[in-house]
Amino acid sequence: MNKILEFETTQFDFELVNHVKFLRKEQGVSKENLSLKMGLSKTFVGNVESFTQRHKYSTRHLPLLAKAFGFKNISDLVQFPVPKYDKIRVTIKQTFNESCSKVIRNEVLRIEEL
User: Fold this and answer.
1) CA dihedral (52, 4, 17, 78) positive or negative
2) pLDDT digits (tens, 9 = 90+) for 86-95
3) How do 2-10 and 103-113 pair as beta strands?
4) DSSP code per residue over 34-75
């Protein structure tokens, strides 16, 4: 089963989540382990990476993330281009498992400036 989901956010928040997810996977760190390394509940990173939750990283989380990844400077964490837009609408196609109990794939269909 597939579901189309739209949500509004800032492009910086969207890019930060995707960048942290990339770093996490590159280093072989699970969502739960990254949450625990940050000193937060074990579900925090999973909630942030889920497109159905409203959780976001805040300025408080930047030094926690930098330390968890072993960076000496916060600027090393945010090594990605300056976002083109401020606010965006993201359209996602979610693919669920056979029992429709878990999202197995998210595909970004469209990003629009607001």
Assistant:
1) negative
2) 999 999 999 9
3) unpaired
4) HHHHTTS-TTHHHHHH-TTS-----TTHHHHHHHHHT-SSHH
